[in-house]
Design goal:
With 378 residues, the chain is an alpha/beta fold. The protein contains 12 helices and 12 strands. The longest helix is centred in the C-terminal third of the chain and has 25 residues, at 284-308. It binds pyridoxal-5'-phosphate. GO terms for molecular function: transaminase activity.
Length: 378
């Protein structure tokens, strides 16, 4: 028998990979409506598609630079300057990625040895944990709780720091809860990381979805010494399947990540890079329109929440609505019942960690007509 590697023993197939297969195999009289995954159903800007088409015909089909086209890196730097007031050197402080999810693996491989400890939010994006386990480092979960607005408890962090973690994952605006961190909290996190020499990685793909105050951790004084940031074009520009992300930070950190990445892939498709540069330059109207569409959808999800008797925070931001079930109800059984009886899929909160138990998460990636249909079915 050919055994799989030991590192796979602690890792399960990704929840959505399994659940979406189950849903695809379900025999139903009416189509299932998924409010599960955060995959934008909206279209990219027309000029972005036009650029993709035009540049695919340019005859540039060879391997591309490991660091991405200068034009795309410049557009990324300009985007950070205009949106976050963060200055980065487009030659040395930005590395384009084939999606920010892959960046989680690259960063982990670049900085962690086997057995190193990693601070991971509970609840949080499951990939931080699975990647940590895949490379045989060790997750140290820190609590985010509703009563503390889903912000870290610094007393607990200080205790966990005694175990000398090497990396701390943070993700504000936070998925799945939609919580934001003020500049003050980000400043406290940077100070914590400096005190204990921890690399903070802020995973920041949701800053432009229903959020009035996009903030980069790199805009905090002195952050560059201990922090890097992941960003993504997936959600902001409706191109999740095109796979474009970036990691930003000081040259030494970026160089270490490049050492991993350049040994794993052979650059990003030329036309996609040209189109990404175009997307990063869209006017304010793009962002306003995105906000308008998601805000309208959010109102219907609020009605769905009321119907289901679950409680949401109207101040939360991002691409999801995070809602608390009445006391004592199990989230996985709750969503399964809705899936099997109403043919509507909602994500159970416990897949994001134990602090997500008793919560459910709705994605805003469904048009008004579908959301209205959900309301009707309920
Ligand atoms: C918190 C968080 N980080 C990263 C990602 C990955 O985004 P990308 O499409 O850039 O790989 C997601 C996608 O759902 C996410 O929710």
């Amino acid at each position: 028998m050919i055994a799989e590697a030991q590192r796979l023993q602690s890792v399960q197939e990704y929840y959505f990979s399994k659940k979406l297969q189950e849903i695809a195999n379900m025999q139903t009289d009416i189509p299932i409506i998924s409010l599960g995954i955060g995959s934008p159903d909206l279209q990219p800007a027309p000029e972005v598609i036009e650029t993709l088409i035009k540049e695919s015909q340019a005859g540039v089909n060879g391997y591309q630079s490991y660091r991405g086209l200068p034009e795309m890196r410049n557009a990324m730097a300009q985007f950070y300057l205009s949106k976050f007031e963060v200055e980065v050197n487009s030659n040395s402080e930005i590395l384009p990625l084939i999606g920010s999810k892959e960046g989680i693996m690259h960063i982990s491989m670049a900085f962690l040895n086997e057995g190193d400890k990693v601070l991971i939010p509970n609840p949080g994006y499951p990939t931080y944990t699975s990647v940590t386990e895949l490379i045989q480092a060790e997750p140290l979960f820190y609590d985010l709780k509703g009563e503390n607005n889903w912000l870290p408890d610094f007393e607990q962090l200080e205790k966990l720091a005694e175990q000398k973690p090497k990396i701390m994952w943070i993700n504000y605006p936070h998925m799945p809860t939609g919580a934001t961190a003020s500049r003050e909290v980000l400043g406290q996190l940077v100070a914590f990381a400096k005190r204990h020499q921890i690399l903070i990685v802020n995973d920041n793909p949701y800053s432009f979805i229903l959020n009035d105050h996009p903030t980069s951790i790199l805009s905090i004084d002195g952050a560059k010494e201990v922090a890097i940031e992941l960003n993504s074009l997936s959600k902001t520009f409706n191109i999740a399947g095109w796979r474009i992300g970036m990691v930003l930070g000081k040259e030494e950190f970026i160089h270490s990540i490049l050492k991993v990445k350049s040994n794993m892939d052979s650059g990003m498709n030329y036309a996609i890079q040209k189109a990404a540069a175009k997307a990063l330059e869209v006017s304010e109207e793009w962002y306003d329109n995105l906000t308008k569409i998601y805000a309208e959808r959010r109102q219907i999800i609020y009605q769905i929440c009321n119907k289901l008797n679950v409680k949401y925070d109207p101040n939360a931001v991002g691409m999801f609505i995070w809602a608390k079930l009445p006391e004592g109800i199990d989230d996985k059984s709750f969503i399964d019942e809705i899936l099997y009886t109403k043919k509507v899929f909602i994500t159970p909160g416990s897949i994001f960690g134990s602090n997500g138990e008793g919560y459910i998460r709705f994605s805003l990636c469904a048009p008004v007509e579908k959301l209205t249909e959900v309301l009707k079915r309920l």
